[in-house]
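Incident review: delayed structure delivery

Summary: a single-chain prediction request sat in the queue longer than the usual turnaround. Root cause was a stuck worker, restarted by the on-call engineer. No data loss occurred. The affected request and its eventual output are reproduced below so the record is complete for anyone auditing the incident later.

Affected input:
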Amino acid sequence: MAAPLLQAWGLAGALRSRAALRPLGLLAPPCREATGPGQGQGEAAALEENPFYGKYRDKIQELRRSSPDVFESRMEKRNEVKKQPVGYSKQGEFIRCMEEKAEGLGTKASKGGFTKEKTLDSVLNVEMVKDKSAEEIKQIWNQYFSAKDTVYAVIPAEKFDLIWKRAQKCPSFLYALPRKEGYEFFVGQWSGTELHFTSLINIQTQGETAPSQLVLYHYPELQKEKGIVLMTAEMDSKFLVVHEAQCLANQVQLFYATDRSETYKLVETFNHRSSEFKYMSVIAELEQSGLGGGLRPSQGSDKS
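Output delivered after worker restart:
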C-alpha cells in the first residue's frame, strides 16, 4: 500500500509546546543522495533513524533477510511516495484485501487477531434488552466493559448521524497520537461502520501487508428505537495501550462530530484537497482540545 509521506523537514519548530513536536511517526529522516548498489543501504539507515523504528525492527529485519529484493523494492517506493500528496492512500483497498484473506482462511478471525464480522449479538443479548430504556442499556454496556481492557462508548444517535454522514463523504483522516518523543501519526479509514487505524510507519515498512492496529466497532441496531449507538474496540496491544486507543477514539468525535467548521474543514481537505492539507493543523487542534494531554510525561518528569 502506498503511504502518504509529508515533505516537511524543518517545520518541526513551527508549533511549540511543552515537548518536541516533530511528527516522528510520519516523517522519515531526509534521504541522502546515493546511486548504485549502496543506495538501498542508505535508505535503510535513514529508516532506522526514525524513533518508532524499534517497534517494527524484528519484522523489517526478517523481511530484509528472507526477501532482500522485496525489501529493496519497498525502500525505493518510499522515495516515490514522497512525491504523492498528503491525502493519497489506498487504505480502503488494504482493508478489503485483509477481508478477502480472512474469508479465504474460512475463519472469523482476521489477520492481527481481530474479529471478522463482530456483530452486536456476539457482544450483547439484544433480545433481552429490547424492553429496557436507553439509560438502562447504557449502564449495562458501561458496566460490562468497565472491567475489560478496551475502549467503549455509548454515542447519542444524533451525534453518530453526523459522524456517519461525514464519514461517507470523507472516509479517511490523519490522527496524531502524543508520544514522549513527539507525535506518532495514524491513518483512520472507515470500512462500513468499522473504523480501522494503522500507523503511517507501519504502512511505510510493511506496505500492503500492514495490518490494522486498532478497530472501532459501531453498532447502530438500537439507534432508531433507543436513540443510541454502541461502540467497542479491538486493538493490537503490542503497539497501543487502552489510554492511547482512547485518545484516537476521542479524536473521531473531535474531528467528525465537531460544530466548528474550521475543525471539520481539516477532514474535508485531507480527503478532497490533499495538496492543501497541513498536518501541523491536526496537532494544533489536538492541543487546543486538551485530548491526549495526559499521554506525554510532564516537564521535569524525565531525568537525564
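Verification: The first strand starts at residue 152 and ends at 156.
Action items: add queue-age alerting; document worker restart procedure.
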